[in-house]
Amino acid sequence: MSAEYQVNGSVAVITLANPPVNGLGLATRTAAVAGIKQALADDAIKAIVITGAGKAFSGGADIKEFNSPKALTEPTLHTLINVVEQSTKPVVAAIHSVCMGGGLELALGCNYRVAAPGAQMALPEVKLGILPGAGGTQRLPRVLGLEMALNMIVSGTPVASEKLAGTALFDEVTAPGADLLAAAVAFAGKVAGIRPLPKVRERTVDYPDHEAFLQFSRNTVKAMAGPFPAPLQCVEAVAAAVTMKFDDGLKFERELFMQLVQSPVSKALRHAFFAERVASKVPDVPADTPVRAIASAAIVGAGTMGGGIAMNFANAGIPVKLLETQQAALDKGLATIRKNYESTVKKGKLTQEKAEQRIALVSGTLDYADIAQADIVVEAVFEEMGVKEAVFRQLDAVMKPGAILASNTSTLDLDQIASFTKRPQDVIGTHFFSPANVMKLLEIVRGKETGKDVLASALALSKKLKKTGVVSGVCDGFIGNRMIEQYSRQAGFLLEEGCLPEQVDKAVEQFGFAMGPFRMGDLAGNDIGWAIRKRRYVQKPDVTYSKTADLLCELGRYGQKTGAGWYDYKPGDRKAYPSEQVNAMLVQHSQDIGVERRKIGDQEIVERLVYALVNEGARILEEGIALRASDIDMVYLTGYGFPLFRGGPMFYADTVGLPNVQDAIAGYASGRHGEAWTPAPLLVKLAAEGKGFNN
Ligand code: 3HC
Ligand code: NAI
């Protein structure tokens, strides 16, 4: 049973009990319908209360059931809500906490709603690429009015129950600390004899000149929705609440819901929802693995990354000390942090008071003795093994026993770094992305000796810092940078073969990337990749690269920071202008290496860049560097601007079909630089088996 039935005097209490969030899956729906029928059959019962066990009233329809026959098996969510609405005895929803999606739709089918303050009310379906499909778009406007309901449905943002007190959504919002269930049972007793039973469906939506408002909403939402179809469909469904009879509106909502739920965008968003949650699960590290408390932190190196990482700790209320070798570098790092907070205040995203509190949590030092008692230390010094060695030997000497020793290295061998200490079990990689105070991704690098409790602690820390933590094994570049290298190589080859930077960027941005590779290079600094390639030319002489990026750097065009990169920039303006100098250099280079430039279509550009990611992702998966394909997708969605509506590179490959990806790769393998296109064995195997990476 996933709903319990109890009797409290003359009131039946049905408790949804499907942990963790009482998703309204088939078993829960069946048990809830049975509960209503039992109450109706019992003459001693005069009213019914529906509530939820644990941390939620209900998080909504069970998303795992979508696209499976279960979602359509009776009793469906529609049937459950119908049974509730048709009840001849009053039904009261007792909402103590999360009440979302189908959960709120169920509550709207009840005759009355009693809520505790702080309950999170939302119709968040739009975030999954769908719309409320069980009457939410028809009933919410009838209790909250057109404008407020439309805002909630189009944004999916939760609203606290106390903010909705006084609307027709609630009959009562209890006082803080009151016993909600007792209040709901008392309320049910009070209204038990009232007839006719109030029903949301019988209310009307009154809004003067609703057509003008709806048209304004359509225009605004259309401009903001980009490739996501659901927001605009939400507006259409809500419009039906005003323009159609209730049952017709319900039918219209259902039609739109069925279209959206089958759409590739919704499938991608649902994939991302589960991918984000599963990423924190590591098969051999059980959920109850004890974690080390992190109440204080230290950062070694106050440069670009160190400062941003420190801000993450301060934002989470954790005091953090920055260590540098020189006072000037330390002062510069601390000043940058202050400047960043001040600009956030100027943008109105943080109050001055909060900014000051956070700044006060950050301090600096030149002395290792001052950081010895920190619970975690994150090293963010230069990307050179020699420098890392000196730092880790020092950390090993001074840090208290049990401190977590983390490295922000983006490419270096974490196991080698751990070997510089006598406590490799305490060493882990925490690879933040730039700007570290903004980017959601935290790649957590598990060394061969990293302790399970240290890994569990880093995953818990990622949540505390509001990051998406994804675990990677040790390899050059870990998941994200190892893959991006193949993408960048292809971008370089495209330039040699006939593309200009703006053409490549435009094609990839039209595919949905936040930024193409060349605009990205100019933003991050082209000298970073140059330094990495110089190392690779020595360490991996057989890997081929286009020389174009080196030639660019030899011209001193490092990117926005030097006022020129792949593009030209005007002072104080981040807009990229095509550069005659660069374009001439590219044409000359093709001539120098004897390549006849050709017209390259957008499809080839996108395929070569994206399939390069996919092919390397397949190797990473096969080698066990990533635990699952969806982890790779999370890395790309949260760290590299891969379009969310495509679900990540591995999910995208699944939607294209792996045999199609394999065929395209085979085509490129027979072309120039075919050596970069050896298909990953896992890709070949899954394609032959008719499977995808994610299933
Ligand atoms: N269906 C199935 N599983 C769900 C779920 C749902 N609606 N909502 C949450 N879960 C699962 C998560 O996958 C996770 O599972 P795991 O433990 O195996 O990883 C677990 O519940 C806990 O989720 P969170 O880690 O997100 O827990 P939080 O406490 O941080 O957040 C929440 C709880 C606010 C409910 C959040 O999970 C959430 O936003 N869920 C989605 C809510 C939603 O979109 N509801 C609409 C569903 S669609 C619908 O109702 C259609 C209808 O209109 C027809
Ligand atoms: P940076 O050059 O901006 O900062 C490094 C800082 O470390 C400097 O302030 C320097 O004075 C200090 N430092 C050097 N040696 C030190 C020592 N022995 N003790 C104390 N401080 C010392 O470098 P950045 O970009 O912040 O990179 C740091 C690390 O983060 C590197 O490992 C890099 O690979 C990694 N990383 C960088 C990203 C980026 O986009 N810049 C992204 C993700 C990771």
Q: What amount of the residues lies in strands?
A: 5-15%
Unreliable stretches: none
Quickly name the level 1 CATH class of the largest domain: Alpha Beta
Give the CA-based shape: globular
How many β-strand runs?
20
Gap from first CA to last CA: 29 Å
Q: How would you describe this structure to a colleague?
A:
With about 700 residues, the chain is of the alpha/beta class. The two termini are about 30 Å apart. The strands form four sheets. It has an eight-stranded mixed β-sheet with strand order 13-12-11-14-15-16-17-18, with helices on both faces. Strands 1-2-3-5-7-10 form a six-stranded mixed β-sheet, with helices on both faces. Strands 4-6-8-9 form a four-stranded mixed β-sheet. The protein has three domains: about 5-260, 2-enoyl-CoA Hydratase, Chain A, domain 1, CATH 3.90.226; about 295-470, NAD(P)-binding Rossmann-like Domain (Rossmann fold, 3-Layer(aba) Sandwich), CATH 3.40.50.720; about 480-690, N-(1-d-carboxylethyl)-l-norvaline Dehydrogenase, domain 2 (Orthogonal Bundle), CATH 1.10.1040.50. Strand 14 (about 375-380), helix 14 and strand 15 (about 405) form a beta-alpha-beta unit. The relative contact order is 0.06.
